[in-house]
Amino acid sequence: MLLTGGAGFIGQHVLRELAARGHEVRAVDSLRTDVHASSAWTPPAGVTFERADVRDGTALDRMLAGAEAVLHLAAKVGLGVDVQDLPDYASSNDGGTAVLLAAMARAGVRRLTLASSMVVYGEGLGHCAEHGAITPAPRTQAALSAGRFEPPCPHCGEPLAPALVSEDTPLDPRNAYASSKVAQEFYAANWARLTGGAVAALRYHNVYGPGMPRDTPYAGVAAIFTSALKRGEAPQVFEDGRQRRDFVHVRDVAAATVTACEQHGDGVRAYNVGSGTPRTVGDMARALARALNGREPVVTGGYRLGDVRHITADSSRLRAELDWRPQVEFADGMAELARM
Ligand code: UD1
Fold first, then answer.
1. Is residue 322 classed as helix, strand or coil in its secondary structure?
2. pTM of the prediction?
3. Beta-bridge partner residues of 132
4. Among candidates 84, 83, 178, 75, which has minimal Cα distance to 123?
5. C-alpha distances in Å from residue 241, one per residue of 73, 221, 225, 325, 332
6. How do beta strands 132-134 and 125-128 pair?
7. Mutate to test the pocket of ligand 1, among 93, 123, 177, 221 (most ligand atoms within 8 A of CB)
8. Do the beta carbons of residue 89 and residue 80 sit within 8 Å?
9. What are the backbone dihedrals phi and psi of residue 90, each rounded to the nearest 5 degrees, phi first?
10. What is the pLDDT of residues 143-177, one digit of tens each?
């Protein structure tokens, strides 16, 4: 197996899972400086590692020779802070995937597991009591600053109740990162049609756990709250704290990724990867504060214009088709963060 992005947060857990299941593993990672503090990285014993960028087709030709399958996790993450980020997302993610797929075709490798994201669904799905399932529009600055956090039904203006997004929900990428994840999925589907290859696209939900990026622009809310609590500060919860996410543990995500790689051998299939239990950001902050014995969270009413209100997945396809079950209980996962 070849794993790209093997030195990343999720990649390192995937490497461990592959090794634990007895796979012969090769890994590439560019150790890009906006993510990795050091240009050196030591892989776990038994893993062949090459520092290389996935846009380097020659390095990929070397690493792909004789490989059975590819797990493609290498990507520029985050959301993109401004329009000047677009070329780097397009080059690192879209371009990198295109180079990888071409190299896989040369090497005759026919199976791809792709790290995608729930962010491909945009604002997700809402439910209006009168008008049924609705794709909410982006929230306006005026509504957010007036404290109207729930996106309204475009027909009657009533707040929408959050609904679970299935893999068939239309894609609606709303930032550079989301657009690049959608592009990766489409390039992979093109490659599959041309080569007869198989693609499993895993749309990860909010991943947390040991090794998560902290104190970088890529830090998710669980990492931001952990850092604040460890400094003796109260977590700052935006909006009214009732926005919902599905926090899924990185070891469960790694197991889902390796299971998809082992089992998905035909066609193109997307899988949502979430714990199946949506939580509010406020509840997560309180659970973490308890686990760390830290200060009570403060609900600030502040907001980030690009944030979606709710995004929660229906991850039942992964359970039904690949027999995957999350193993890490939320309270245990939070307690583990406290020990990090
Ligand atoms: C996250 C990932 C994204 C992934 C997506 C999949 C990060 C940085 N982003 O986006 O890559 O594609 O999940 O579902 O990991 N918040 C606070 N206080 C803070 C910071 C954030 O209340 O100090 C709130 C935000 O307003 C938001 C929620 O926490 O409502 C989650 O924010 P964040 O962790 O940045 O993740 P997502 O936007 O869900």
1. helix
2. 0.96
3. 128
4. 178
5. 31, 12, 13, 28, 22
6. antiparallel
7. 221
8. yes
9. -65, -45
10. 999 999 999 999 999 989 888 999 999 999 988 99
